[in-house]
Design a protein that fits this description.
Blueprint (H helix, E strand, L loop, with lengths): L2 H22 L4 H21 L13 H24 L4 H29 L2
Helix pairs in contact: 1-2, 2-4, 3-4
Length: about 120
């Protein structure tokens, strides 16, 4: 998809996710806007470079590296819910935090994958 078309689609997708987060999870527009921005950025790279989320360049050969990666991913996946529980945040807000963290990780993976695709001749 061309850059001219991928930017409006990405913006629309980000706004959709942000509106859904605002409607069902968060009572403030400010964190919902942050969620919308992260998902719009991730969607832009997804549409502009035609890459898959599962096609990430993160590969480790050493066993200890794979275990460290798995432990880190586990921490990233349960961290927002644990912080929400610790801070006694309402359940929808804790899930909103999880949605934001997931979008942030998705954005970083897609940006890295897009950068690797540009390096390949």
């Amino acid at each position: 998809m061309s850059v001219d078309r991928s930017l409006p689609f990405a913006t629309l997708f980000g706004l959709l996710v942000g509106c859904l987060a605002y409607q069902f999870l968060l009572s403030d527009w400010y964190p919902a806007l942050a969620i919308a921005a992260v998902y719009a950025g991730a969607a832009y790279f997804y549409f502009a470079f035609d890459i898959s989320v599962l096609e990430t360049p993160v590969e480790f050969d050493a066993r200890s590296d794979k275990i460290g990666y798995a432990i880190g991913l586990f921490g990233l996946s349960v961290g927002p819910l644990a912080i929400g529980e610790y801070a006694d945040v309402q359940q929808p807000a804790a899930i909103g935090l999880f949605v934001w963290i997931f979008g942030m990780i998705l954005f970083l993976l897609l940006v890295t994958t897009a950068a690797h695709h540009q390096d390949i001749p």
